[in-house]
Amino acid sequence: MKDVAVKRWVLEGTDYVYPRTTNKILEAYLKSKGVAAADISINYTPFGHSDWQTRVAAIKRFGSAGKKTAVVSTINGDANVPFYKELGNQKISAEDIPVVAFSVGEEELSGLDTKPLVGHLAAWNYFQSVKTPANDAFIKQWKTYIKKPNRTTNDPMEAHYIGFNLWVKAVEKAKSTDVEAVLAALPGLETPNLTGGIAKMLPNHQITKPVYIGEVRADGQFEVVWKTAGTVPGDAWSDYLPVSKDTEADWVTLKCGNYNTKTNNPYKTSHHPNYTPLNKVDDDMIKKVGTRGSDQAGRDTFLRAEDDQTILSLSAPVFYRWPEAGPFDFYGGGGIALGFVDRDEEAGPGEDDGLEFVIAPMLAAGLAWPVGESEAGVELAVTANELQNVKLTDDVTTSGGARFKIGFPPALAASAEDLRPAA
Fold first, then answer.
1. What domain count does the chain have?
2. DSSP assignment string, 138-198
3. Is residue 219 assigned to a domain?
4. Which of 222, 289, 351, 414 has a C-alpha 20 to 30 A away from that of 9?
5. Alpha-carbon torsion 339, 341, 346, 350, what sign?
6. pTM, whole model, 2 decimals?
7. For residues 289 and 281, what is the distance between their CA atoms, to the nearest angstrom?
8. Would you say residue 193 has pLDDT above 60?
9. Which segment of 173-187, 202-216, 335-349 scores lowest on mean pLDDT?
10. Residue 392 forms part of a structural domain
11. DSSP β-bridge partners for residue 24
12. What are residue 122's DSSP bridge partners?
């Protein structure tokens, strides 16, 4: 960027996730270096796009504003062939508007007349032209296997070579091909790459690789014009995007691929992602513990009349109708609501109505139902104090002699929220 004094940038990509993500990072990076938004042009075309005449002409116009312009290309697959052909047709040379490709390698250039493209660039972690004993041996083995001496190697092939060798080492370390066991064994493993360095699997499941920028040669190969001093550790998240700059991937210590260091630091073993394990208990434990509550001070506030607004709200009689149960009324008063079958269809309990069950709203809609039949008209009075220590399994006997249980009858619990004032 500084060496060639580029001032305007075209980010040209195929319309899918990799180019869009890459260009978001590139745009943020360029702006952080002082490039104005007006000097950044971003464009996407569909997969297999072939008619590049209009788009290449637009790039040519964008580069004719008196500022040095370069193209960063994330064009994918077959669309590269007509793109580079059109660059040649419109006589856009690397001296005029250099193109740096992230998705064009030796294989893509093998079907092109590369003479008009000499000088354009590509960025990869591997080029066939890199001379090392390991790379020479690999190329020879590949051409012997494929039986096509003109076929080329490329960066994705080296990536598979590295990946397979790391997998073998992980299987040997784990003594298993189980996916989880292999994943756990991978971090820290190393294997030689084809260009003379070492690829190491990091805790973020990225590896170390060198970075090369190659210039297109007339024979379809690349001449390395720049490279990193050594290998570069892969980063799972970009430091240039607000959505990811505070995010870290660490599958060894944090056991997480998207750990937010801003919201979760300082890291403690009691915090995410190492939650305190929960012990599973039997359902009967609910009955043993009961339905209890507490305030912030840890005091037991369950059914405390002075604290429970539900109890206070029931100081006056109120009628509710439950339409799904037929003609039915609830009578509430003094901290208890009694359920009666409304046989005479008159509001409130009458002489012809029978007690079916009792609802105690202060028990968080805990339902109660009679143990035995009760005569119509029997006075039932249960105060909040009498229910203070009632557990879900207890029988309650009212001063009128009726007995009922506190609990959640399955047939009624599903409709408990359907209570609504009677018309």
1. 1
2. HHHHHHHHHT-TT----HHHHHHHHHHHHHHHHHHHHTS--HHHHHHH-TT-EEE-SSSSE
3. no
4. 222
5. negative
6. 0.62
7. 12
8. yes
9. 335-349
10. yes
11. none
12. 101, 214
